[in-house]
Amino acid sequence: MQPIQIRRFPSRAELDTALAGRLEQSIRAAASGPLAIMLSGGHTPLPAYRQLAERLALAPHSTRDTLHLLYSDDRYVPADSEASNFHSTRPLLDALRLPEERVLRVRTELALEEAALDYERRLRALLDRGVRIGLGLLGLGADGHTASLFRGEDLQRARGRMAIAVQRPDGLAGVSVTPELLWHVTEPLFVVAGSGKHSAIQGLERRDPALVAVQAVRGCPQVELWVDQPDEQGNGA
């Protein structure tokens, strides 16, 4: 893993706008050939997703036949649940108007282990068809986790897999991509905002091997970190 390229933003609003622009740039890139974008869940990227959806409503892009979307992880809840990462991206999906088969969601209507295996099969099939995964968004928890990889045990179970079922600390189950899948992402981008994450950000910056997020992207040739500029106390702007 090479040194992390860090970009700091003086405000959350500027981070959101820049992320919406980066996503739009990636969508445009799909016009030149099959391309997948990996979306992350959580609250941090939602303003950028909404902002991009508004842009696309005004100026839609013709990428229906070349663009694919996938998710870094999702909670094991119904697809229309407020806790679902897939559901939280609905405004963006509606603006993109992609065919259902081009949106790789975790099929939580299946049994948990079956949902993980199904997601893995479809991810491998996507790569086998020669679809490149370009931009891949990742979150960073205060505990140093990313996607739904929370513990060293999750990383051990992930060996040789592209998606696994996990038990989350909040009591919910989930399905997460693995380091093996992240190796195929050419532009992995951590997007971090909010208070309470200063220690995790520092750990990521110095590539602390004890951090699950660092271990998850260790095989990636390049990694970016976008963060809203912390104040002197290390709180998010």
Top keywords for this entry?
seven-stranded parallel sheet; 237 residues; single chain; three-stranded antiparallel sheet; 9 helices; 10 strands; disordered C terminus; Rossmann fold; alpha/beta
Description of the molecule:
Helix content is 35%, strand content 21%. It has helices spanning 12-29, 46-58, 85-88, 90-96, 112-128, 152-157, 179-182, 198-205, 212-216; strands at 5-9, 35-39, 67-71, 73-75, 103-104, 132-138, 163-167, 173-177, 185-192, 224-228. The protein has a single domain (13-57, 65-207), classed as Rossmann fold (3-Layer(aba) Sandwich). The protein is globular and about 45 Å long. The chain is built from nine helices and ten strands. It has 237 residues and is an alpha/beta fold.
Strand order of the largest sheet: 1-10-9-6-2-3-5
The secondary-structure class comes to: alpha/beta
Uncertain residue segments: 231-237
Question: Residue share in helices?
Answer: 25-40%
User: Mind telling me which CATH architecture this is?
Assistant: 3-Layer(aba) Sandwich
Approximate shape: globular
Average pLDDT, all residues: 92
SSE order in H/E notation?
EHEHEEHHEHEHEEHEHHE
Strand content: 15-25%
The CATH first-level class comes to Alpha Beta
What kind of sheet is the major sheet? 7 strands, parallel
Q: What is the end-to-end distance?
A: 29 Å
From the alpha carbons, calculate the radius of gyration and give it in angstroms.
17 Å
Number of DSSP strand runs: 10
Task: Assign the CATH topology.
Answer: Rossmann fold
Tally of structural domains:
1
Number of helices: 9
